[in-house]
Amino acid sequence: METIFDDRGMIVKYDDSSVLLISDIHLGLEEELAESRGVRFPHQHPAMLKRLERLLKKHEISHLMIIGDVKHTILTDSHYNWEIIPEFMKTLTEFVETTVIPGNHDGDLTALLPRNVNIVDVRGMLTGPENEQVGLLHGHSWPSADILDAKMIVVGHNHPTIRRVRDASVPEIGRSSRRRYAGTVPVVLKSKLNKNCVRSAIGVLEIPDDTMCSIITLPSFNELLSGISVNHPKSDFLGPLFENQCARLSESEVYSVDGIYLGSVEWFRERFNEMIKSNPTWD
């Protein structure tokens, strides 16, 4: 098994197949932003289809799996949902076999999906051959017990990012140094999951010689969507796996969306703290 990261997605290559994993496409986000904040962005679904088509061709993908939050509104009663999502998903199935693992925004999603889109239980699924299985779960719920048979679990839900700031000082005109928010950069997180912590929580027997596995948190595939800034000292991930300390954000590793190791969360937080201490003025 080989794993590749590309354009906010994760490709898992087996001997005879390749699976593309993406998370949190949040179709309809731009409509909600227009209604709630009066800010209009171009529709994101045409660009996402082009990005997906590129990934599918480049990596010869045989199966696309969307790890939750296909739609942005939790309920289905939005004209955007009915106008865009069925056609978007239909187009995907013309390229590749498609499966959805539902997220917390995917209430009543089945009504919007073409019949040839597979939708599985919210507690996740396994993919791959028996000795190389990967567990897939959105991350807002506990997994089923069989997901813990995997050596690696991939989730979404928290949209990990690095928060950027910039120095806006202009000393030549006497302007004091100020730190300003400068947006976020999407990243991939790799954490350690204590499987017996999860087993205890879901009421199954612990296995002494099968205690740990890796858990990968993917960023949002929707480029408009920010998320939790992992370098901020007070941030933490949502969902039972992290909220119950079965996995710890502070002990995680940070990777770029292309899979390049950037450092530990602890290291990023130390740098963030030092930056704030050097100049506490924010604008």
Plain-language structure description:
The protein has 283 residues and is α/β, with parallel strands linked by helices. The protein has one domain. It has 6 helices and 15 strands. It has helices at 29-37, 45-58, 79-95, 195-202, 240-243, 265-278, and strands at 2-6, 9-13, 18-22, 63-66, 97-100, 118-119, 125-127, 134-136, 152-155, 161-167, 179-186, 188-194, 212-217, 253-255, 261-264. Strands 7-8-9-13-12-14-15 form a 7-stranded mixed β-sheet. Strands 1-2-3-4-5-6 form a 6-stranded mixed β-sheet, with helices on one face. Strands 10-11 form a two-stranded antiparallel sheet. α2 (45-58) packs parallel to α3 (79-95). The radius of gyration is 20 Å and the shape is globular. The mean pLDDT is 89.
Shape: globular
Order of helices and strands: EEEHHEHEEEEEEEEHEHEEH
Strand order of the largest sheet: 7-8-9-13-12-14-15
How many strand segments? 15
What is the gyration radius calculated from CA atoms?
20 Å
The overall average pLDDT, rounded, is 89
- DSSP strand content: 15-25%
